[in-house]
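Per your request, structure below.
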């Protein structure tokens, strides 16, 4: 049976190496132990949902289809190691976008909460029992607004940060270990 809570995970810097404006598959590097972490969540039927701001679209560097292609590639690489992300939600907007149709102050761009709310609805999970993991204040602030449990991970660009999260760990694998312990699953 699928669990009634989800784990919402940031993408750049948490799943894959944060290189500014990732737009080419050749620049995609999955971080160490990410597949191992996601495999554990899969094993316990906990929905694994990526929530990501992608102003790279608003900047005109990549189309929505291009982003989806990167997401398929991430899952393809993970699946080779037995792990699977259940879904990806992305915000293509930015208030100062080059591309006019994406130049808005939207409600989805984190720390906005619209993507989490949509995902919670789609997966039938309770936000207050769910977890938000990320390496930016945007993830943690969104998670706090929603009343989720927040876990910050270190950033490959900025190192360990003080983000006012409920928990602070080094990486996604440590975050997942903490979740499984809290949920008494191991
Ligand atoms: Zn948006």
């Amino acid at each position: 049976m699928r669990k009634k809570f989800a784990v919402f995970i940031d993408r750049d810097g948490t799943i894959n190496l944060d290189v500014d404006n990732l737009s080419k598959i050749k620049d995609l590097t999955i971080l160490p132990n990410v597949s191992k972490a996601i495999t554990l969540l899969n094993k316990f039927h906990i929905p694994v949902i990526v929530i990501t701001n992608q102003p790279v679209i608003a900047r005109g560097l990549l189309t929505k289809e291009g982003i989806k292609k990167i997401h398929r590639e991430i899952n393809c690489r993970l699946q080779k190691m037995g792990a699977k992300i259940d879904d990806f939600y992305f915000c293509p907007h930015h208030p100062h976008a080059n591309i006019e149709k994406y130049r808005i102050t939207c409600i989805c761009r984190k720390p906005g909460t619209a993507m989490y709310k949509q995902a919670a609805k789609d997966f039938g999970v309770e936000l207050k029992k769910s977890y938000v993991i990320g390496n930016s204040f945007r993830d943690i602030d969104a998670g706090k607004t929603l009343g989720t449990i927040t876990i910050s991970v270190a950033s490959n660009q900025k190192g360990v940060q003080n983000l006012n999260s409920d928990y602070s760990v080094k990486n996604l694998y440590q975050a997942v270990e903490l979740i499984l312990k809290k949920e008494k699953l191991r």
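Residues 91, 93, 106, 108-109 surround zinc ion (CB under 6 Å).

Regards,
D.
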